[in-house]
Design a protein that fits this description.
This protein is of the alpha+beta class. 49% of the residues lie in helices and 17% in strands. The protein contains 5 helices and 6 strands. β5 and β6 form a beta hairpin. The longest helix is centred in the first third of the chain and has 28 residues. The chain is globular, with a radius of gyration of 17 Å.
Amino acid sequence: IFDIENVAQKLRLPIETIKPLIQKFTLGLEDEILVMRKIVQKKDYASLRELAHKLKGRSANLQMQNMSEIFSTIEKNAKEEKNYDYEALLERIIELNGELKKEFELSHPTFVYSVDFSPDNNKIATGSRDLIRIWALDGGKPKELLGHGWSVNKVSFSPDGQYLTSVGLGQPGS
């Protein structure tokens, strides 16, 4: 689905630089899709066009042509304020994003309730049912932190990025 070597060659960047960009894009896209769905429900075509345009550019910059074309279709139809089947397009984006996450081992074992970027933007923390993961954007496997008995509703880096706090149901986080 995604030929990172070809992308690195086209962008004239090392693969080690491309991987964190893909990680950041794919993890952030889930939230963007939720926002898009709310915008579609409100029929706020100006906001939909603006967000689709932004995501079209991001995906095109990463050479994700399939996604970029879908965002372009959303942007075009929103610009014309058409009552279009946006949900089908968003489902296809979710599918493509899932494939990317699998390919780059970005999947979380359960639903993610919270995401926070470190102040230096080098790490992302995610909280799910009973697990916290810290993702280094320079690649590699995420570090897993156990300890919550139930869902991790909020993760947050300290302002200096040295600590991570978490809040959830069950036992207190640390």
